[in-house]
Amino acid sequence: MNKTATCVQIRHLPTGIEVKCMKERSQSVNRFLARRELLERIERLQQGETLRDTKVEKLKKQKARRKRRSSGKYKLP
């Protein structure tokens, strides 16, 4: 159980992009990683990539995680 709140959530108000980071145990490191991710997303947006593409990437990652997690649960002996 996580007893400390180390998750960081950053929002870029002009674009509405929101980033949530909880990869590390240190809040300051998570803040740094979240800022870097936010910068990357803003740069992608400026280059012409739409937010929809990033949402598609996020869904693909979620599905891959779920597939990996579920594949190990129901193995027959």
How does the overall form come out from the CA principal axes?
Answer: flat
Total helical elements: 2
Proportion of strand residues: 5-15%
- Report the major sheet: 2 strands, antiparallel
Number of strands: 2
The low-confidence runs, each spanning 5 or more residues with pLDDT under 50, are none
* SSE arrangement, N to C: EEHH
Description:
With 77 residues, this protein is of the alpha+beta class. It contains two helices and two strands, in the order ββαα. It has helices spanning 27-46, 51-71, and strands at 8-12, 17-21. The longest helix has 21 residues, at 51-71. The chain has a two-stranded antiparallel sheet with strand order 1-2.
List the helices and strands and how they pair.
Blueprint: E1 8-12, E2 17-21, H1 27-46, H2 51-71
Antiparallel strand pairs: 1-2
Salient structural properties:
single chain; 77 residues; alpha+beta; two-stranded antiparallel sheet
Entry summary:
This protein is α+β, with helices and mostly antiparallel strands and about 80 residues long.
